[in-house]
Amino acid sequence: MNQKIKDIQPSILYYGTPVILLSTLNEDGSTNLSPLSSSWALGDCIVLGVSTGGKAFENMQRQKQCVINVPDPSLWRHVEKLASFTGKQPVPEEKKRLGFKYLKEKFAASGLTPAASHSVNPDRITECPIQVEAEAANIRIPEHSPFFAVIETKVLHVHAHERIIKGENHIDPEKWSPLIYNFRHYFGLGSELGKTFRA
Ligand SMILES: Cc1cc2nc3c(=O)[nH]c(=O)nc-3n(C[C@H](O)[C@H](O)[C@H](O)COP(=O)(O)O)c2cc1C
């Protein structure tokens, strides 16, 4: 393929990862919800990229538990309802400059429904087809950037909507589809292209 290539300096590099809604526990026992797109999963480890200026980071440092709720494309408007808010008060200057406002009642604002978790204190989100209860095993701030933390979590408990389960312990990729954050725009997946030899 003869493709012309150009050097660029993009202001963001969000090249298309699933959206998650991270539940963390506030000081008063209520649950904060934070939309994130920086995560990856391998075995029972899910690694999160979390801004150090937000409430999710503050809560994880103090309480070290979370639920990684994974919405499907039908829930994008609910996610977006949370996008301009932070659970942090006072709102940090940088967030204020970007137009963020303080909001504590994230469930009410998003129109999503809380459900008690089994192994952790923050609530799960009923409407999210995959809900992963986890604990922080390691929280690290990279030397080259104080603005976000790499949080390694250990999975404790996985819940899934019955309609996306195949057999006993598998998610059916024909029935499940993540919500993708693609350079600040929401997308669903296209149709299947094929499968790997281990599928
Ligand atoms: C779809 C989407 C994806 C986002 N991804 C991330 C992310 O990966 N990491 C992060 O720190 N913030 C991310 N943000 C920004 C946070 O949601 C935002 O900072 C929010 O105020 C966090 O809420 P909190 O301060 O109550 O934790 C994302 C926002 C949206 C809407």
Automatic annotation (TrEMBL):
Record flagged with keyword Flavoprotein: yes
Domain named Flavin reductase like: residues: 15-189
Pfam families: Flavin_Reduct (PF01613)
Cofactor: FMN
Keywords: Flavoprotein
SUPFAM superfamilies xrefs: FMN-binding split barrel
InterPro entries (alphabetical): Flavin_Rdtase-like_dom, Flavoredoxin, Split_barrel_FMN-bd
Similarity comment: Belongs to the flavoredoxin family.
Protein name, UniProt field: Flavin reductase like domain-containing protein
Taxonomic lineage from the root: Bacteria, Bacillati, Bacillota, Bacilli, Bacillales
